Amino acid sequence: MGATLAEINSQAELQFVRKLAMSGRRTSWIGGTDAANEGEWKWISGAPMTVSDFKPLTSKQMIKYDRPERQDCLAISSHVDFHWRGIFCIQGYEYICEQENNNSNSHACDHGWTQFEQSCYYSSAIIGNVFQVRHRHKHWFGAQAECEGKGAKLAELNTESELQFVRQLAQKRHTSVWIGGTDGDKEGQWMWASGTPVSVKDFKPVTDPRMKQFDRPEQQDCLAIVGGHWKDLNCLKTLDYICEKKNTQNKVTVSKEKKSRDIDETRRN
Predict the structure, then answer these.
(1) Half-sphere CA count of 74, side-chain side, radius 13 A
(2) pLDDT 10s digit of each residue in the chain, 269 long?
(3) Cα–Cα distances in Å, from 212 out to 172, 175, 178, 208, 221?
(4) What is the DSSP letter of 197?
(5) What are phi and psi of 224, to 5 degrees?
(6) Given 112, 129, 151, 262, which is the most exposed site by the fewest CB atoms within 10 A?
(7) Is this model's pTM higher than 0.85 or not?
(8) Strands 28-33 and 94-95
């Protein structure tokens, strides 16, 4: 099958999977666990949880038998109106699986790219293994050049849904990645490399005193996703990167069909 228990990384995905569980009217396993550290829920892939949907028990009878320290596996539970709940891992329940959609059709992106809405996305982090990091990591300008060599550009995020999708793509390998933003022209005024202003933002303030000590915003003019959120970094730092290009597969198919019709009409005449 080539799938895993579902790992939920956006509000849209959360609502979709919840509805899926509700349609079966039964408690369903998903891919979370806090077995390593009680109360610290992670996906079985090792990725941290960026969304949460736990709901406290209200039934006195259920509270009486609740043992959180032994309930290390995550389910969408019918007992809490199909919200999340930690449950004994050996319980027998339905389950929801998830796998990459690699179907090849006229709307699909090129091999190695992932489709979202009208664009295709490529993450350098999918290349090879940890021993090849040195070869795939680029500074921001090098990353942009790599994307351009693929007929693309560093990803430019213009909607909340696209933001969530690219964040999820970045977190698959738990690595920091360049995207196409810069405030090189004017400090604090973030623009995409194409020249369009940044309309959605996902910056998270630096709170670690040690990191604050070395933070130099005026020297950090290029945009990356670090730990799931945006961070301005020195453009010469080498990271993985995410490219974006418009999906033209459907347009190519249409033009081929039109060309075929034109040829047929010429033959008839």
Answers:
(1) 26
(2) 567 899 998 888 888 888 888 877 789 999 999 888 888 899 988 888 888 898 877 777 567 666 777 788 999 988 788 899 898 898 888 999 987 655 544 457 888 888 888 899 999 886 544 444 556 789 999 999 999 999 999 999 999 889 988 988 888 767 899 999 999 899 889 999 999 999 998 888 776 676 666 667 677 899 999 988 999 999 999 999 999 998 865 433 323 333 333 333 333 33
(3) 27, 21, 21, 6, 16
(4) B
(5) -135, 160
(6) 129
(7) no
(8) parallel
